[in-house]
Task: structure prediction
Amino acid sequence: MQLPDEAITYQYQGLLLPTVEPWTVTAELRQQHFLAASKVKEIAARIMAVRSQVATERSLRDPPPEMQPLDAGFFDLPPQLLDQHRKAGEASELGNIIRLAQQLRDQTDRVVILGIGGSYLGARALFDSLKHSYHNELAAKDRAGVPRIYFEGNNVDNDALQDLFELLQLTCVEPESREERWGVIVISKSGGTLETAAAYRAIRRELAEYYGSNPDQVRQLVVPITGKEGKLRDLAHADGFDDHDVLTIPNEVGGRFSVFTAAGLLPAAVMGLDVRALLLGAATMTRRFLEDPFERNPVLQYAAVNHLITTECRKPIRVLSVWSKKLEALGWWYDQLLAESLGKNGQGATPITLVGTRDLHSRGQQHQDGGRDKVINNLIVKSPRQAPIMLGMADKNQDELNQFNRKGLPDLMGAAVKGTNQAYWDAARPTADLVMPALSEHAIGQLMQMLMLATVVEGRLMGVNPYGQPGVEAYKKNMLALLKGQ
Ligand code: PA5
Result:
């Protein structure tokens, strides 16, 4: 059972019009740029109907053509995976993921994860938010058996990939020693994405060069994750992989909704994260979404409020202001989720990730004083994981910090969040707070599932199909034609 202080909350008073406010210039501006509480009340009834609609459509096995694509498999996957694992243990999908993760951890000290878009950003968000900020720099004994992790195959950047190969060549010279062995996870649901396929082809050559032509050994060091069929699966078969050693992204789960499939879970398990806690967090959020009333339902609140502020208050830019450096990649993951899901038919808010306080020294000026085209959703972590760094007393007080000697960095962060929100309020800039208890697997599981569910609900409110990304095909088609010389 979830304790209340472990739950994620969405607090949006910072964008609601005060009920009574004497006339001032700022109050007048708030009238134009903030949301009336009555509007939120009005949409609450409509959004309940949308919840029923998305709850029903998630069980449609053969949706009519006008509803396609429909990739709602992510809703129920977390509890399903946990249930199967409880019943079948190692023989379950999650059991197989944990087995392959253990194999990679036993065999290698470096793992390269290849993938792009939804086959990259979820795993990257998990790594950055939940692992030590300098994980790859730590000595093996301080990493507790977790390999160093690198991400590639998310571009066609020659020098970046060449740099990684150089690093592997310089640091790994003895393939017999685990400390100098590296492995690969290659992720592509379609199996045909050029960026990932090109990187995999190049890295397979590196594998052959380093380990020699010992296909049995190489198969122990590589895990492909792909759809039920496609070129990557065909290649894995041609390389002699057993079906049991190729993980599957289910058809009914879309790429950017796939963090709780093998695409996110295998990397997470290799990183030594508690994948059950991640899934439990996600399952808890789906249950809250389906059962809780609007007043206690962060999915419905986030979808309703952001939809209204985008459309009624004309705020086409949605800033996710994350108050931890460790959440920047989570912001990139949300950028993709929002942009690819709702950026359709001339609609959809433009996502921007801001890292507080760092970017207050770059974008802060514009957010405070620039165009009134933004809503700011703060993502706030209540408690740090590490012991607080205190300012303390110093003999030389030229920096005048002795007055804060009993304050720690978390106090400074708390004051920065409050002070920034106050400054935005005073300038009639709408803000809301998404508050998570801590950076833990359980909280990140809740958060990611919350944002995925809210994106689907918002799409249905807008009349936009949140699944599929037809707009992305245009560049791929042109790129292929150019490569073929057409
Ligand atoms: O959300 C999506 O479906 C996309 O962003 C894909 O994840 C991305 O294009 C990568 O596709 P694939 O996993 O097929 O290589």
